[in-house]
């Protein structure tokens, strides 16, 4: 073998070793590669090959450096995600505990026999994975009881999904409750339904009686098969849900009249809770009123508010067609508009006073209100004929004018009417208001 040939073989062997080092991740002998590129070190062809190999080595090393940087960044991001996941899990636990305290049965206000029975039944239902039907008039707190059951059950860390059956059109019922697959329609992405979202937890169906018969059949199949089929899919998805339904309708009558499926009724009504209307809860009305008044007063930054004895008699005598929801609105209004820290009958809404007047007032059982302090206005003392509608309205208007210091715009805002409406009331009631300080009549 000639000398030139041997030199060529040596150069090729060096290049092969360098390739082998790079392939196995071993550090390449860069000095040896640099020596091969010097002019006269070998043939021109081998020098060009060594230069090309050197450029390739630089690119490989640059990519290795870039890859190392990406790996380091990914590891950092992964650590941040793990920390975020840990914080999220901790906050989720805290949220569940907060909700458990919020819906603790001890916080259910009511000492009457009917409410004690409801609370005891709710605790028993919470311990068992059975479907439940909550019955009661509008505004009695059916969703509150449903959440109380959920957050006292083994499912408390899973979702509580509330569905208003009247708010979902029939055309969207399946996609909203059961989900939809991608591509069913233009621009539609795959989406889980509310039933899937509630899997492992509780599905609360409010206003169940308003569901159409067609949708009742679809819901029944889900409850019986324990699986849902998304719109546009043929593959069923298993679900594990506890169903709590609520309605203010008479479902037994609806079943007899053919407006509600009998098989669905018995599937949901494994356990039944009946919430009493507020008018049947006796002194619970005052317990709730004080609690709600304190809550709204604290929200509005007011000092502690209390109910005058005559106001308590009014609350007990009223029929409360809107139940606890109506009482909550009444206490919120009183906390916002009452001039004093004592809620008097004249601070109650005109609707409530009108209803009492039409029903004959609060009767002879009402106790007279204590005399007002000497420093109080002449309108603060409650007349014996307070429940005469015209006199009650006159008293409200006069007190609003006094609270607004004669400013009709402020008085109208307190009464919840327009300034023109107040002017008409003044003319009708024969009340002459002094000129306002701003010069307006």
Please provide a written account of the structure.
Helix content is 52%, strand content 9%. The protein is elongated and about 125 Å long. It has a five-stranded parallel beta sheet with strand order 2-5-8-1-9. By secondary structure, the protein is α/β, with parallel strands linked by helices. It has 17 helices and eleven strands. The N and C termini lie far apart (125 Å). Residues 363-383 and 436-441 have low confidence and may be disordered. Strand 6 (227-229) and strand 7 form a beta hairpin.
Summarize the structure.
With 441 residues, this protein is α/β, with parallel strands linked by helices. It has helices spanning 3-23, 30-36, 44-102, 113-126, 142-150, 173-178, 194-197, 213-225, 251-256, 262-268, 284-299, 309-317, 323-337, 350-358, 389-403, 408-415, 419-429; strands spanning 132-135, 160-164, 179-180, 191-192, 202-206, 227-229, 236-238, 242-247, 271-274, 306-307, 342-343.
In which range does the helix fraction lie? 40-55%
**Which sequence of strands runs across the widest sheet?**
2-5-8-1-9
Oligomeric grouping of the chains = single chain
User: Stretches where pLDDT falls below 50 for ≥5 residues?
Assistant: 363-383, 436-441
Order of helices and strands: HHHHEHEHEEHEHEEEHHEHEHHEHHHH
State the distance separating the first and last CA atoms. 125 Å
Structural category is alpha/beta
Count, helices:
17
Shape: elongated
Q: Characterize the largest beta sheet: strand count, sense, and whether it forms a barrel.
A: 5 strands, parallel
**Strand segment tally:** 11
- Cα-atom radius of gyration: 39 Å
Q: Would you tell me the overall average pLDDT?
A: 80
The percentage of residues in β strands lies in: 5-15%
């Amino acid at each position: 073998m000639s000398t030139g040939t041997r030199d060529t073989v040596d150069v090729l062997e060096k290049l092969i070793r360098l390739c082998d080092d790079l392939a196995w991740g071993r550090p390449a002998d860069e000095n040896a590669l640099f020596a091969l590129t010097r002019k006269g070190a070998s043939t021109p062809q081998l020098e060009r090959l060594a230069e090309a190999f050197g450029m390739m080595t630089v690119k490989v090393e640059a990519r290795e450096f870039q890859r190392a940087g990406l790996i380091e960044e990914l590891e950092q991001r992964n650590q941040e995600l793990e920390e975020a996941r840990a914080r999220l899990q901790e906050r989720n636990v805290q949220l569940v505990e907060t909700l458990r305290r919020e819906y603790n049965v001890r916080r259910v206000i009511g000492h009457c026999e009917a409410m004690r029975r409801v609370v005891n039944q709710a605790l028993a239902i919470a311990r068992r994975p059975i479907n439940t039907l909550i019955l009661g008039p509008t505004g009695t707190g059916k969703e509150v009881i449903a959440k109380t059951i959920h957050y006292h059950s083994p499912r408390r860390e899973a979702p509580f999904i509330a569905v208003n059956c009247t708010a979902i059109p029939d055309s969207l019922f399946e996609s909203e409750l059961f989900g939809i697959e991608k591509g069913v329609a233009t621009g539609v992405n795959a989406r889980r339904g509310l039933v899937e979202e509630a899997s492992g937890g509780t599905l609360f169906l409010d206003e169940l009686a308003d569901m159409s018969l067609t949708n009742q059949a679809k819901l029944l199949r889900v409850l019986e098969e324990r699986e849902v089929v998304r719109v546009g899919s043929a593959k069923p998805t298993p679900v594990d849900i506890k169903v709590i339904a609520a309605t203010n309708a008479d479902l037994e009558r609806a079943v007899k009249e053919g407006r509600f499926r009998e098989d669905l009724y018995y599937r949901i009504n494994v356990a039944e809770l009946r919430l009493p209307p507020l008018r049947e809860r006796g002194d619970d009305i005052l317990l709730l009123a004080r609690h709600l008044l304190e809550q709204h007063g604290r929200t509005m930054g007011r000092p502690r508010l209390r109910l005058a004895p005559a106001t308590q008699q009014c609350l007990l005598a009223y029929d409360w067609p809107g139940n606890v929801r109506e009482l909550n609105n009444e206490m919120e209004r009183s906390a916002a508009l009452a001039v004093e820290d004592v809620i008097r009958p004249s601070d109650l809404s005109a609707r409530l006073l009108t209803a009492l007047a039409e029903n004959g007032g609060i009767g002879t059982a009402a106790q007279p209100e204590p005399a007002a302090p000497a420093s109080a206005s002449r309108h603060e003392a409650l007349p014996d004929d307070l429940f005469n509608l015209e006199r009650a309205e006159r008293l409200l208007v006069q007190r609003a004018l006094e609270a607004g210091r004669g400013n009709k715009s402020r008085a109208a805002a307190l009464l919840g009417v327009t300034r023109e409406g107040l002017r008409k009331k003044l003319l009708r009631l024969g009340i002459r208001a002094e000129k306002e300080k701003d010069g307006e009549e």
